[in-house]
Structures are given as C-alpha cells and as structure tokens.
Amino acid sequence: MVVCTVRGNAPVNYKYIKWWIKLADIIWVNSQQILDVLSTKFQIPVSKMLLQHNLVETNARSDSYKKGYILHVGRFNQVKNQMQLIRAFTQLDHKTELELHLVGEIEDLSYYNEVLALIKAKQIENVFIHTKTDQLSDYYKNAELFVLTSKSEGMPNVILEAQSFGVPVISSSVGDVAKIIFAV
Questions:
Q1: Which residues pair with 130 in a beta bridge?
Q2: pTM, rounded to two decimals
C-alpha cells in the first residue's frame, strides 16, 4: 500500500499531485481545506483520502510563564507574515512591558532582512528573533500569548503545540484554524 501526504495549502504542495494520484492508494491530508481542494480542483475521490488532523502531546501548563511574553513560531517567509505582527505590536499600549519573540528558521533571506529592517526603522527594542528551533518547548513554556499571522495554512502544528502547553492563541483565520482555536 502506498500512502502519500499533502500538508499545507501552498500551491507548491500540489505541484506533483497528478503523479501522486496514480501512485497512491491513500492520500493523507491534515485539514478539511486541503481535502476540499483535492476533491474539487483535482477530482480526487474523497474515499481515496484520509483526513486526520495533526496530533501533539498534551503538556502541562507551567505557572512559570513570563508575563508579557508574546510568541510567534514560523519560518521567516512572506506567507508566515511576521511583518504584520511587528506592525501590530508597535500599536499596542504598554508595549514597553511586552516582549515579542519570533522563532523560526530563515527560509527567505530577503524577507528576513526586511523584518530586521522594519524592527530597526521602528526602533523596537523588545522584539527578539530566535532562528535556532531545536528547543521549541522552552519558548512555549515561557509564552503568555501565542500569535499566528499567516496568510495561508492548512492545519498549523504551532497552534496545536501552543494549546498543548495551555497558551492562549490569536490567529489569522486561514485554513482549519477556526476548527482548532477554542475558548476554555
């Protein structure tokens, strides 16, 4: 049996889909949005697809989180839209009491440099960039709030991870985000 997976709703994820259709017995997708695209745009029968949302471990919420610590996790590229988050951060009252932590690998160096230039132009001292992502749990444990500003997503793991640590989430309404953000 051959199982293929499609994660994320970026056009590049559909580049070889016609080839996958011929090979795969089952196509695993992690969001309703992707299932809908595959069934309507590519006429893949729903019976050939398996919708299973991402799974993450549940972690106990730590009382040691840092007050005012706002977290964003995502690769530095235009889709993850860190620029919008930085602009919004500059508009907050009491921003001197807050810290914005941007965690992610540099995928688009040009965009990353634009992010750095915006931080410098706005003279923001309390925005911290972390490009080493091997200890994400430490960032989640410190966070009082998680914010995702993506322009496109499927089922974002980072929201599930933040929730697994009990961190409240604010996100743009993309992909299946509305299905996983809930009030406690």
A1: 103
A2: 0.74
